[in-house]
Amino acid sequence: MTILALNEWEQRVVNRIDELKDELVLLCQDLIRIPSWDRQTRGEAEVAHRVGKTLETHDIHPEYFASHPNIDNLVATWGAEKGPRRLLFNGHSDVIPPGEDWTVDPFTAEIREEFIYGRGAVDMKGGISSMTMAVCALRDLDVPIQGSLIVNVVGDEERQGQLGTTWCIDNIWEKIRADGAIISEPSGLGGFGPTVCFGEKGPAWVKVTMKGEKAHGSVPSIGKNAIERMLQLLRALRETQPPRVPPPLSQDELVQEFAAAVGVEPHVMKALIERGGKSSPITAGIEAMTKTTMNIGTIQGGVAPNVVPDRCEAQIDFRILPGQKPQEMIDFIASMAVDLGYSEYCRVELVEAFEGTSTPNFRQDPLLITLFGSVRELVGPTIFFMVPFASDGRLLRKAGLTSTAVYGPGNLTLAHTADEKVAIADLLNATKVFAISALRYLGVKE
Ligand SMILES: [Zn+2]
User: Fold this and answer.
1) Which residues, other chains included, contact 417 with Cβ-Cβ below 8 Å and sequence gap of 6+?
2) Count of structural domains, the chain
3) Binning pLDDT at 50, 70 and 90, where does residue 284 land?
4) What's the gap in Å between 187 CA and the centre of ligand 1?
5) Which residue range(s) make up the domain with 28?
6) Pick the catalytic residue: 30, 94, 257, 377?
7) Which of 156, 157, 310, 392 is catalytic?
8) What whole-number distance in Å separates Cα of residue 391 and Cα of residue 366?
9) Per-residue pLDDT reduced to its tens digit, 140-160
10) How far is the CA of 92 from the centre of ligand 1 (A)?
11) Known catalytic residue: 72?
């Protein structure tokens, strides 16, 4: 840790955050203790109000905006009325259902060996706690920041954000309008540590329906087997690979990022990565970040072994890169069906899709370079990365807030898993990164 690089204000803020550690941990635990996955309960509203209670304790006064009887979106602004910039911290209050296979209770927020366990620990009640306490620390010290800092806790992210970030953009844009935004979703990459994410891929879920002709299974050649037609199509898709566009960061550039972060020569890094094999998290991560991926997720067809099936349905999850249109995946499958002579039996439709987004020229973007520098100084080596999942960042970028980053505490691969957990050290580090990035991005009055 290079604390020497911090100036006097920054050092005071870091010290203040260390003093607030217990309050930070308690806030995260309290948020986990509010189950907020069921729209029939007030969970999402209660999370917003629990964050609001902490802000009030530190003399910051939030407003609540109901987008649904059980969802309150929180907005709190602190700082100078006027200033060169506004910075938005965005986090979502909802979680996914707990699911099976937990070895701890998902809603008691138990602490074991310096980790807080529970549904939402990384996705993303940890992130909300850190961004909230960062603003509280700045407020406690009355740091004379220029511009203002906005805390926005939204609902509905796991259901695509219509009643959360999209609702805020459509209804209270003036309150959340900013020059830069940080989404505090987890951005840690396994054993490597924190990353700074400048973009995200988009899902394009496609349903393929293949028709055949029914016949008795004892004389199969009379019929046309829809499952066999589907298998041929899927095999052709796998052999051809989905359409490609140049990724925002190439594989070579990513290897260079990793090499620079850990201080080794790129060829050494490349050898280390190759040694890990094709299925190592780092190789799989690089692959997912630089290519459009395809996962055949479901397949259904047939009614009995002795009937030639006349219908087969498959669903495919493509993850497309920024710059690609979901329609390209439809066209890709349709052209394969034509090649196989199946176009009249095959229907291809989009089930759900949105485009990938990224911050243009992210290496020159004032917020992203500030955030990157703060992470490197306060936490350690980091890289620019692209999240393989979708976050509310895509909605903000589409609304014109292109200078949007995803950075937050915890390991992103633990999101949506059983025994989800976040390290207390990660919470503390992220709180410092948020506060110092805000100071540097907004500026302090002399
Ligand atoms: Zn999330």
Assistant:
1) none
2) 2
3) confident
4) 10
5) 8-200+356-442
6) 94
7) 157
8) 21
9) 999 999 999 999 999 999 888
10) 7
11) no
